[in-house]
Automatic annotation (TrEMBL), chain B:
The keyword Cell inner membrane does not apply. Residues 1-18 form the signal peptide. This is Sugar ABC transporter substrate-binding protein. PANTHER family: ARABINOSE-BINDING PROTEIN-RELATED (PTHR43649), DIACETYLCHITOBIOSE BINDING PROTEIN DASA (PTHR43649:SF12). InterPro entries: Bact_solute-bd_prot1. It comes from Paenibacillus sonchi. Keywords: Signal.
């Protein structure tokens, strides 16, 4: 139920409202003018180009213009629906993303709390530095390292051989069945430490008197974490979840381009790498745009759904 | 966070491209229809003469400024600073501003309508080339109007090959090898089955031509040289490495059916028998799993360090440097070419080389400020004079012709080439400005290829056979067939590697059966039809039966 003030505003005549708006704007012009470049940027680079999405409904080649390319209606979408490789990529994207979400979302929280609980000192710093470090390396570098480690003469095979777990080395990256796990775990290794920063920032803002009071009441460490730390992080966890969920379909490109090979393609190809392959390497822009458009629509749906769910968890308070 | 970055990057690309497209939408279309009639006159500058190249006649005094777009980021954009381009600049009185970029930039040019004067791209099967008539000037008309001498230096077969539906040719490629070039014997082979000399001699120079011999040799290598990988091949990536068409060429798998239609070489019995052999070798542990996952760089590292005992090697000139590094560091252990896998049904090898389609292809656009001058550049670079200049520089200054009629770099230049590659590149730029380079010019000198691959080229003599009829026969981009074909190629890439790694014959066969079903479900009949049709056109163009 809107507040009475809001209800009243809705009833005022249009002219008066515009007038008020102009006065407000004049009064705040310094602040407003700071927003204007951003708005212009958005219009030029984000809104005008939306028109370019029409090539999803056309048969566009390099030498056509947007207007001269022939319309083909929903043909591109129809082909997508019957394309085995597209569906493979959808399944892989969802599979890998949900694994990353299920494991990779919780680990930074746990890690963050663990770091927070450490006493100040050198050890804490070392833990933080080591866990952040992989984030700063690109997938090209990390992928190269992984490829070497997984090769027949690499770290993992040598380790397994020494432990007597296998009798013959094999290239682990060629094993399609293991790819989802490789993708998930390597991504967590890369990003978990970095993901703790946000949580640590929030935790540092928690009023220490809560903890003091809890300790006086005889609460154990675990009890303190459960009843003080976690509830205080609820909001930021929800926000992070929403952002992560909306990006579910769009992730994994860099990683896939580095780690995919002919044998694990079936399990490694994700939507983005598929779009890249169709658009950039095959030159089939219309098809690639159609896939991209479909993905964007689903992403918006996911975003809204995630927002709904988290707002239910947060006593109907929406983060967005 | 980083997860979203890939998506953002892609989106940004699309968005930027689309922005440019939108801008263009308002800017107006292409300047259509500027046939021969629309070409500006050069009568006030010179009178054309069929016997003299126009650049010698042109009296234009002011220096012509031209922009030249090359669709390759790695292209060296300097002009007029090194021996080669300085001479071009002087002789033609021009100044070229090179612009480089990738496909996105190329698209921007087309979308924006702000075309360069000259344009070079790499994919002859792309829509840009197929629809060149809409944006480029026909070379036939240009030659007639400005420089008839062009027809003396351009290969008629090549011009025919690139003729579009209107009977005109718009672009001219480099490394386009015609039948005459093949017949002359000037084209060196670029593929070979190679073995390390020390290994070969230690085993008593065994034959490896039949599947049995091949398996036997690999087994022996594995037993006696445990630190080596017995058999290697080019990085597979999204293609087939050297185990697809390259191996098929070694076995002389037919290029067409008896009726002259498209023949699926991947399903040839002879070829499949060899895949089975290689699978057996893999099962014996004589092929490393890594070979299937290595990228180009990883493969080259292994070549450089002599990790493979034998290799089915494609692109020996590209590997020449790596082979040379290994050879210099390990005298007596260099790789040598021997008769490798051979047909089980008695076909002779039909090795492939750069075909008539060539490599880079250059155009003069409709927006060209001075088409007469642009045409002169084509003629100049294609003439013997231009060719020698691009490859070897200026006689007396950088090279001399020895008693055998072979071109020889002068000692100081040669020394720089071997010992200070960067300075050599900057000062001389020999063999690098290769818009119209050809294999026949490489054959003029002993210095054109590194020592490490000369024996391999020698081995390949007489084994080359043009694959002209199979060039540019894929369905046009953007058609359902083209999409189906790209799916089929992906499937074959996976299937072939899985077959080579299969645990037993039964799974080998079931993978193959799977692939055949995939063909049936993905428009294969239609693709074969299109390819057969295009092969027919190729034959007409080349005057083959």
């Amino acid at each position: 139920m809107p507040s009475p003030a809001l209800q009243q505003m809705g009833k005022r005549p249009m002219g008066q409202r515009i007038k008020e708006w102009v006065t407000d704007f004049r009064r705040q012009w310094e602040i407003q003018s700071m927003v204007i470049p951003g708005i212009i940027f958005m219009i030029v680079f984000c809104y005008i180009p939306i028109y370019g999405l029409t090539i999803a409904f056309k048969n566009y080649t390099v030498i056509d213009t947007l207007s001269s390319a022939p319309w083909v209606g929903l043909d591109n979408f129809r082909i997508i629906l019957s394309d085995k490789y597209f569906w493979d990529s959808v399944i892989n994207t969802l599979g890998i993303s949900f694994l990353k979400l299920a494991i990779g979302f919780v680990i930074p929280i746990i890690l963050g709390i663990m770091i927070y609980e450490l006493n100040r000192g050198r050890f804490k710093k070392i833990v933080q530095t080591i866990s952040y470090l992989p984030h700063f390396l690109s997938w090209i570098v990390l992928g190269g390292m992984l490829i070497t480690w997984f090769s027949t003469s690499g770290l993992f095979n040598q380790l397994l051989l020494e432990l007597g777990l296998i009798s013959k080395p094999s290239n682990i990256l060629l094993d399609a069945g293991k790819y989802w796990w490789i993708a998930t775990l390597s991504d967590i290794w890369k990003e978990a430490g970095w993901g703790t920063i946000l949580y640590l920032a929030v935790m540092s803002k928690i009023d220490p008197t809560y903890y003091e009071a809890a300790r006086i009441d005889g609460a154990s460490r675990i009890r303190q974490i459960w009843n003080i730390t976690l509830p205080n992080m609820k909001m930021i966890i929800s926000l992070n979840l929403i952002l992560t969920v909306s990006g579910l379909l769009g992730s994994n490109l860099d990683q896939t381009l580095v780690l995919m090979n002919s044998q694990n393609r079936e399990k490694a190809e994700v939507i983005n790498s598929y779009v890249y392959r169709m658009g950039m390497t095959q030159g089939d822009f219309s098809y690639a745009t159609a896939v991209g458009l479909g993905v964007s629509i689903v992403s918006v749906i996911l975003l809204v759904a995630a927002n709904k769910i988290t707002s239910k968890l947060n006593d109907n308070q929406s983060v967005l | 966070m980083n997860k979203a970055f890939g998506k953002k990057g892609l989106k940004l690309c699309t968005v930027l491209m689309a922005a440019v497209l939108v801008m263009q939408g308002c800017g107006g279309g292409n300047s259509a229809s500027s046939g021969k009639a629309g070409l500006p006159s050069a009568d006030d500058r010179y009178t054309v003469d069929a016997e003299t190249p126009a650049w010698k006649l042109d009296k234009k005094e002011e220096t012509t400024e031209l922009t030249w777009y090359v669709n390759a980021d790695w292209w060296n954009t300097d002009f007029g600073k090194d021996v080669v381009t300085k001479k071009i600049k002087e002789d033609l009185n021009i100044n070229i501003k090179f612009i480089t970029g990738d496909d996105t930039k190329l698209n921007t040019f087309f979308a924006g309508g702000d075309m360069p004067d000259l344009l070079t791209i790499f994919d002859s099967n792309s829509p840009v080339v197929q629809k060149a008539a809409t944006w480029a000037l026909p070379l036939n008309d240009l030659a007639e109007k400005y420089d008839p001498y062009f027809n003396k230096v351009a290969a008629a077969d090549t011009l025919n090959w690139f003729q579009l539906a209107d009977g005109k040719t718009y672009g001219y490629p480099n490394y386009s090898n015609t039948q005459a070039d093949y017949d002359s014997g000037n084209i060196p082979a670029k593929t070979a089955f190679v073995i390390r000399k020390d290994v070969y001699e230690a085993l008593g120079s065994p034959a490896a031509g039949t599947p049995e011999e091949f398996k036997n040799v690999m087994g022996q290598i594995k037993a006696r040289f445990p630190e080596l990988i017995p058999f290697g091949f080019n990085s597979i990536g999204e293609g087939t490495g050297s185990l697809g068409d390259v191996l098929q060429d070694f076995l002389g798998v037919p290029m067409e059916t008896k009726e002259g239609g498209f023949y699926n070489r991947n399903l040839d019995k002879d070829y499949l028998a060899w895949l089975k052999t290689i699978n057996a070798v893999y099962r014996d542990g004589a092929i490393s799993d890594d070979s299937f996952a290595d990228d180009g760089t990883a493969f080259e590292e292994k070549v450089k360090s002599g990790k493979y005992a034998t290799m089915l090697l494609d692109g020996t000139p590209q590997q020449g440097g790596n082979l040379q590094i290994y050879m210099s560091a390990n005298p007596g252990k260099e790789y040598i070419a021997i008769d490798g896998p051979q047909s089980t049904v008695g076909h002779a090898p039909t090795l492939n080389q750069s075909g008539i389609t060539g490599w880079m292809i250059s155009f003069i656009t409709k927006k060209c400020k001075d088409p007469a001058k642009a045409m002169q550049i084509f003629t100049y670079l294609l003439s013997d004079e231009g060719q020698k200049l691009m490859n070897y520089g200026i006689e007396g200054e950088t090279y001399q012709v020895n008693a055998n009629g072979k071109v020889e770099l002068l000692p100081a230049v040669k020394d720089l080439q071997l010992n200070n590659a960067d300075k050599f590149k900057k000062d001389y730029r020999l063999g690098e400005f290769m818009f119209f380079g050809h294999d026949r010019d490489k054959a003029l000198s002993e210095d054109a290829f590194p020592e490490s691959i000369k024996q391999m080229q020698e081995w390949g003599k007489g084994k080359l056979k043009p694959h002209f009829i199979l060039e540019n026969i894929n369905p046009d981009q953007g058609t359902p067939e083209a999409r189906a074909l790209s799916a089929i190629n992906t499937k074959w890439n996976t299937t072939m590697v899985s077959m080579l790694r299969s645990k037993d014959d039964a799974s080998f066969d079931s993978l193959l059966a799977d692939y055949k079903t995939f063909l049936d479900n993905n428009n294969w009949d239609k693709i074969v039809e299109i390819r057969t049709e295009k092969m027919k056109k190729n034959k007409e163009k080349l005057g083959l039966k």
